[in-house]
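Thought: the user wants the 3D structure for the chain below. I'll pass the sequence to the structure tool as-is, report back what it returns, then summarize two notable features.
Action: structure_tool
Action Input:
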Amino acid sequence: MSVLPFDQRDGFIWYDGALRPWKDATLHVLSHGLHYASCVFEGERAYGGKIFKSTEHSQRFLRSAEMLDFKIPYSVAELDAAKRLVVEKNHFQSCYVRPVAWRGSEMMAVAAQNATIHVAIAVWDWPSMFDVAEKMKGIRLDIAEYRRPDPRTAPCRSKAAGLYMICTISKHAAERKGYADALMLDWQGRVAECTGANVFFTKGGTIHTPIADCFLDGITRQTVIGLAKKRGIETVERRIMPEELAGFDECFLSGTGAEVTPVSEVGPYRFTPGQISRTLIEDYTAEVNS
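Observation:
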């Protein structure tokens, strides 16, 4: 399938406070963010032209930058307004929204305290897949070789670009084997998350999910936990060992891209997408379109 490269698309990108033609939104090859991963971003989605939980994402965007020791020069309100503007000017209804901030090219060494902080916001078409019957088939996951790092070794609660390097490697390896994605363990060999989504399991009507202390506590993850609570479904956040997967009934993922996606297989373990997965797909659909 041919996909138009992202640097060759038409439309507008919000860049350092103003809309620019899409193809003019460039940066220099000697930008610190490229060489030293001093870059943070968000993954958001608009439904019916309205960005889901935009403010929560803007707040996390600012926190992520602070963890990387730089300050984004825009407020939450300014970022929310800029995102709305970009969605509107590109005439999208259902789309992906990508704010990104990075250190510029003033300094090219590990230390870059005086580098300019740049911010851009791009959007692109991304229709939602809410065909429940199709989703309920479940996807297949490999088990990744790389593990999520000890939180004492990296700013794990930041949505920082550098933390996704091992995710890309792991997803590529999984796709080469015919899987859709990969489940990642943490530095102690416990279940953590997938390469770009949080993971949940069910057993006896209760949801179990790993404690988010070495990976991102996703906004979609928080939404799903809230939706389960409204349904009276208990969610237990705890340490989960890989061998426990044999005893779970259902497995599903949550994320901006994944929304709520059932899983039928994780390595040697099998699951049957069932009522809890179906209920949360339907409830999430209603939530983002409300």
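Final Answer: Structure generated. The domain at 132-288 is CATH 3.20.10.10 (D-amino Acid Aminotransferase; Chain A, domain 2). The helical segments are 32-36, 54-67, 76-89, 132-135, 165-176, 219-230, 275-288.
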